[in-house]
Specification:
There is one protein chain. Helices cover 45% and strands 13% of the residues. By secondary structure, the protein is α/β, with parallel strands linked by helices. It folds into two domains: 115 residues, Rossmann fold; 106 residues, Rossmann fold, CATH 3.40.50. The strands form two sheets. The chain has a four-stranded parallel sheet, with helices on both faces. A three-stranded parallel sheet has the order 6-5-7, with helices on both faces. Helix 5 links the parallel strand 3 and strand 4. Helix 6 packs across helix 8 and helix 6 runs antiparallel to helix 11. The radius of gyration is 22 Å and the shape is elongated. Keywords: Lyase, Metal-binding. This is Sirohydrochlorin chelatase. Pfam families: CbiX. One of its GO terms (molecular function) is metal ion binding.
Length: 311
């Protein structure tokens, strides 16, 4: 599963092939078609909330996407784009954003706002961490914020990683940066990838990152070594040196970060060859968020419904 090409606007394409580049029905036809598509989507969203006997189905739990937060404005722009893509994929689903730190809205504020909007006390939310592995934020910060939310039933989904959709996104970003999908055996033997991640003192985070590295290695057919920007070893530079000592001089850096920021920039700067962009707002990211949401919703409700979903 590689990055899909954006859908083509067939009316625009066709117009370019006509003399003068004028659409057969003019611009009005295009705008009318777009309006009808929007109305159809909204109508389908409303009908999905009505059961076969005509009664209104219970509203689905709100999806609260939990971002880490960053001082880099590109990070907030990226996360906001992911939110919009989630809404496009599932128009009937209430989607909200909350940050652990550094950006507004902060997660407690988002949950408090949802609770205030809940008129009958039956509101619920699923918190989906926009994080790539288990660690302190996933195990402590997010569940504590969920538990503190008054008048709101909450569940915490699993972090995004490890998952095959992340591997395909990493692969797509590497190809965008210049990784060749077909190489000679000599080139392959000289190639490798450093999977650059944020790092954590939690050993489970390292386990999750290593699993992603193994899956990416299987996808690429070359060694993939995990490395970290902080709190864990090796660093990207150390991993590059270790690979060079093994005869791997054609080393790319895969950016295992959800969005641009200081760590991603520093790790890319240590690349001896190509450095891929962060995962960003790749279409697979929105699909993966919804997958984690669906997993959490599907779990039977128990006294421990705030525990993490199984990855």
């Amino acid at each position: 599963m590689t990055a899909s090409n954006p859908p083509r606007d067939e009316s625009t394409t066709a117009s370019k092939n006509r003399p003068g580049g004028v659409p057969l029905g003019g611009a009005h036809l295009d705008s009318t078609a777009q309006l009808m598509n929007r109305i159809t989507s909204q109508l389908g969203s409303q009908l999905s909330l009505v059961s076969l006997n005509g009664t209104r189905r219970p509203s689905p739990p709100a999806l609260v996407l939990v971002g880490h937060g960053s001082r880099d404005p590109r990070a907030l722009a990226t996360v906001s784009t992911i939110v919009e893509r989630i809404r496009e994929l599932r128009p009937h689903l209430p989607v909200h954003l909350g940050h652990i730190e550094l950006n507004e809205p902060l997660l407690p504020d988002t949950l408090a706002s949802l609770a205030r909007a809940d008129q009958d006390g039956t509101g619920s939310a699923v918190l989906v961490p926009l994080l790539l592995s288990r660690g302190y934020h996933v195990k402590h910060d997010i569940p504590e914020a969920a538990a503190a939310a008054e008048r709101l039933r909450t569940r915490v989904a699993a972090p995004l990683g490890p998952h095959p959709l992340l591997v395909e996104t990493l692969y797509a970003r590497l190809v965008e940066a210049g990784w060749r999908t077909r190489t000679t055996e000599v080139t392959r033997r000289a190639s490798a990838v450093v999977l650059a991640a944020a790092g954590s003192r939690d050993p489970d985070a390292a386990v999750d990152t290593r699993r992603t590295a193994q899956q990416l290695a299987e996808r690429l057919g070359v060694p993939v070594v995990p490395a970290y920007a902080s709190a864990a070893t090796p660093t990207v530079s150390a991993a590059v040196r270790a690979l060079a000592a093994r005869g791997r001089h054609r080393v790319a850096v895969a950016s295992y970060f959800t969005a641009p920021g200081r760590f991603a920039t520093e790790c890319a700067g240590a690349a001896p060859w190509i450095a891929a962009a962060p995962l960003g707002a790749h279409p697979a990211m929105a699909r993966l968020v919804l997958h984690r949401y669906d997993q959490a919703v599907a779990r039977p409700e128990t006294a421990s419904d705030r525990e993490l979903a199984t990855a």
